[in-house]
User: Fold this.
Amino acid sequence: MPRLTKRFVETIEVAPAPVYAWDDQLAGFGVKVLPSGRRKYVCKYRLGGGRAGRDRWYLIGTHGQLTCDQAREMAMQILSAVARGQDPQSDRMAAREAPTLADLWNRYSTEHLPRKKASSGIDDSQKARDYVLPRLGRRKVAEVTRADVHDVHRDLADRPYQANRVLALLSKMLNLAEAWGYRPDGSNPCRHIEKYKEQARQRYLSNDELRRLGVALDELEANSAHGVYAAAAIKLLLLTGARVNEVLQARWDWVDWDRKCIILPDSKTGPKPLFLSNPALVVLRDLSSRPEAATSGFIIKGRLAGKPLVNLAKPWKGLCQIAELDGVRIHDLRHTAASVGVGHGLSLPIIGRLLGHSQPQTTNRYAHVDGDPALLAINTIGETIGTALGIPSDTHATRSPGGEQ
Assistant:
């Protein structure tokens, strides 16, 4: 058989079965002519050497897409790797079966997410769904580069907080990829990518804005039974400084009327009491007097039986329009509670205790704060905000519903 050339390859006649032609100068390099007329360059080698070795076939590529000289060069590289003890075909198959970033996410969500707070898991899932998987889901984990990560991060430059959280998620996933053997140790491409500067938002509701919000809340309550619960949730967020999920997920059997708090079995910073001011107790008593409270385990009842309200975004948007509140997020209600406390001269450790500070070292400093001063502090905040919202002070603050003083 002569040396394979473009002219020779193209003159091989097509037959009902595949026809092979082998180069007489490079053993193992050949061309396969299919009945369809397509011509594919191949490389055949024996793994392990000798007659006992196993024959392996490596498909180099299609004639036309590759020139004969290019295919010959690739065949030489393959045979050189075999001479060094490698198995190029096995390496190719392993690369094809290597996990993608979508595979990494599936393992991450199965093995790592259950260890995190439910809210953090939801947040990770949203970022993976919206930003990570659409861009990198099909990319092999071992092939993700710093440039890939930089592109994802850069595309979110107008949302620096979101961009940095996506970067943090990718970094954690790729650290685990190293631990799980998907990438070499120390190869995380997220390293040396500079985070964007995040400007802390300082948005608090003024007394005038609180009064307008109080009017809008009254209107929301009057519109529907479900509006009552959305309005109550907003009031409790302001009066307690709690996080949204702490209020929405709170259950009636967590309420300790005597100690004036909701005992949260878990939160972002672990178990904690959510102290209740007198106006907050008024809100709870109004909800507890409703007929459906007896059958709803959750304080903030949702539309579905036995389920809590899960989203305040729509009612909050409507409230902001009615009250003419510009650029106010639900999380700013928590900021407002803190700012009212600071305005009344309350100490930072007390405010930190009330809000459940997210920094562990700071939370430890608050551990010695007694419940009585915390209640006095939340009452100071609650009375100010409650007055602005039009919520009367609870004249039976020490009495639980239906109980004795």
Observations:
- The CA atoms of residues 54 and 148 lie 39 Å apart.
- DSSP finds 16 helices and seven strands in the chain.
